[in-house]
Amino acid sequence: MIGTARIRRLPQVVADAIAAGEVIERPASVVKELLENALDAGAGRVDVDIEGGGLVRVAVVDDGAGIAAEELELAVARHATSKIRATADLERAETLGFRGEALASIAAVSDLRIVSRTAGADAAALRVRNGEVVERVGAAAAVGTRVEVRDLFAATPARLRFLRAAATESAAAVRAAADLAITHPEVRVTCRSDGRVALRSPGGGLRDALQAVLGARAARDLVDVDSPGAISVWGAISAPHAHRGTRAGMVLAVNSRRVHNRSLLAAVGEAYRGLIPAGRHPFGAVLVEIDPVMVDINVHPAKREVRFRDERAVFASVQRACWAVLREAPLAGVADAGWSATSVAGAKGVIGVRDEGAGTGVDPAFGDPLVASRDTPQPGTVKLADLKPLRAVGQAGGTWLIAEAPGVLVVVDPHAAHEKVVYTELIDGWAAPAGVQTSQLLLVPEVVECGAGLLERLEAHADFVARCGFQLEVFGPGAIRCSAVPAAARDAEPARLVADLLDALDGDAGGGEPGRRHRIAALIACHAAVRFGDRIALEQQQRLLDRLVETPGGMTCPHGRPTVMLLEDTVLRRSFRRT
Ligand code: ADP
Ligand code: MG
Fold first, then answer.
1. Whose alpha carbon is nearest atom 20 of ligand 1?
2. CATH topology assigned to domain 12-204
3. Which of 110-119, 338-347, 420-429 bottoms out in mean pLDDT, i.e. has the lowest?
4. What is the layout of strands, in order, in the sheet containing 284-289?
5. Which atom of ligand 1 approaches the CA of 84 most closely?
6. Which residues line ligand 1 (CB under 6 A)?
7. Residue 436 backbone zone (phi > 0: left; psi -120 to 50: alpha; other: beta)
8. How much distance in Å is there from the Cα of 287 to the middle of ligand 1?
9. Can you tell me which atom of ligand 1 is nearest the CA of 105?
10. Yes or no: is domain 215-326 CATH 3.30.420.40?
11. Per-residue pLDDT for 569 more than 50?
12. Which of the ligands is closest to the CA of residue 32?
């Protein structure tokens, strides 16, 4: 410990470098801040150029309003901003920036050149190196601003050491540009890394920006979210049959600013519960518009996090808005499942070969006017409810159900379909005011052995277990007796069902109360459902199909597997070369 050192004020350059570290963590922060400035200046087009992961050079050129020549020095000074004037303005700031720190922070840790011109004035340029203005000159340029940042962190080796490989930094920087392209789809954003175009968002609607970022194939799997209101929620999110291995494909934004907020993410996740497999994640963008007074964006140096005054209300709005579209999202066609893409690849005129690459390019066979009649639904647009009346044709190979609806053959996984129907009835039942499931008394009560720990857990959840429709009681040490099971599971093996129930109650798999309800309902439904391979009479097939088409979110089972696959007439005709 150095206990006797004197306290001194730090020289301004040192203080600035420390402050800069809060805002500028890595090259991606530079891209984010410069792009935000361009957007705040009303740019319609921004070009970002990254070299060497952004450590060699980051250049951002915009066609925004520009900076007046006499204000250039002020622009790079700390706490100098044109966006707010008083503390009160902090509450209502509608610009992306407002702290007047970004340019100063970047200039403190790099070699920065800025050239800018406002309408009807001459351009001016300024060069600042590690916080010191080194040059001020006149220049020629179009209206707008060009900021070039070289040798980032060259004077702060400690920061440099914490950076990753150039490729990783470059990817993060492109990601930052992609975030802004998604939250401001109307702006044309191009991003190059070492000369290669990494992103080209055309400046159009949200779908265009998402297609540029996620790729054409992924963009086709999106469904639109649109819930206006005091807390308005809109965007486009993946249909249940499409999902990814990471969370990185989902952009959440509040008032056009990308945010990382657990509650928002959880709300989206909740909407997908029982629709996609555990460990898989949706992609797309969910954009929340809310009165700025209801949200505090001033809680993180890089404004990555936000705080809501009424977090529950925002959570509920987001969850509701997403579920509203997911519950009736389009079904996967067989072409979507990927096998026709391999079996017919290269066959001219055959639908089903879909563009898997990023960016542009649509399968030319897709819109062939010879075959696609106007009233035949296109792949990816048919919803479960559109299949009504769905007529049972029979069971193929003792497993799949074959059914038909106008213009489409439907293949159904009977176990998955039955599971989802029962699951949904259980969840809805618990949500109802009475909230108790009907029970089926067992003729012969079943005794199930279990450890002391499980007995305790059972006691702790006794209420919920009873509401499920179970009648369980402790039956001597290490055993319980089951005298009734949920009516839906009357045909299940009670001993196995109860053993699985006890396991599910054991430990916390997360998600709180809704998570537990989901797991228990999925478990009961799995035991209650017909098994894959069970023979099913035609009337029973029809009953199952009738219930399935009425089930919200019925396109996947509670574990996220598809319940139905469409073999569209258009697809079949193309495959059989029948025009
Ligand atoms: P902030 O964005 O928080 O105001 P910055 O340090 O990022 O702080 O920018 C300081 C000021 O410089 C801004 O308020 C704005 O007036 C001006 N400015 C920065 N970049 C641009 C740009 N690309 N176009 C027009 N003005 C800009
Ligand atoms: Mg700014």
1. 37
2. Heat Shock Protein 90 (3.30.565)
3. 338-347
4. 222-227, 232-238, 284-289, 250-254, 257-258
5. 4
6. 33, 37-38, 40-41, 62, 64-67, 75, 80-83, 97-104, 145
7. beta
8. 25
9. 6
10. no
11. yes
12. 2
Alpha carbon of 411 to ligand 2 centroid (Å) = 54
Beta carbons within 8 Å of 23's beta carbon, 6+ residues apart = 29, 33, 101, 102, 105, 301, 302
Cβ atoms of 1 and 146 within 8 Å: the answer is no
- Name the residue with the closest Cα to ligand 1, atom 16: 82
| Nearest ligand 1 atom to alpha carbon 145 | 23
Atom of ligand 1 nearest to the CA of 76: 6
Find the ligand nearest to 106 CA: 1
Q: What CATH topology corresponds to 418-528?
A: Ribosomal Protein S8; Chain: A, domain 1 (3.30.1370)
Domain ranges of the chain: 12-204, 215-326, 332-413+534-575, 418-528
Q: Which burial class, exposed, middle or buried, applies to 391 when counting CB atoms under 10 A from its CB (0-12, 13-18, 19+)?
A: middle
Q: Calculate how far, in angstroms, residue 75's C-alpha sits from the geometric centre of ligand 2.
A: 9
User: φ, ψ for residue 73 (rounded to 5)?
Assistant: -65, -40
**pLDDT given for residue 231 in this prediction:** 97
The pTM of this model reads 0.85
Q: Domain 332-413+534-575: what homologous superfamily?
A: MutL, C-terminal domain, dimerisation subdomain (3.30.1540.20)
Would you state the structure tokens that stand for residue 371, as one six-digit string?
A: 């075959």
pLDDT tens per residue, range 75-117: 998 888 888 878 777 777 788 888 888 999 999 999 999 999 9
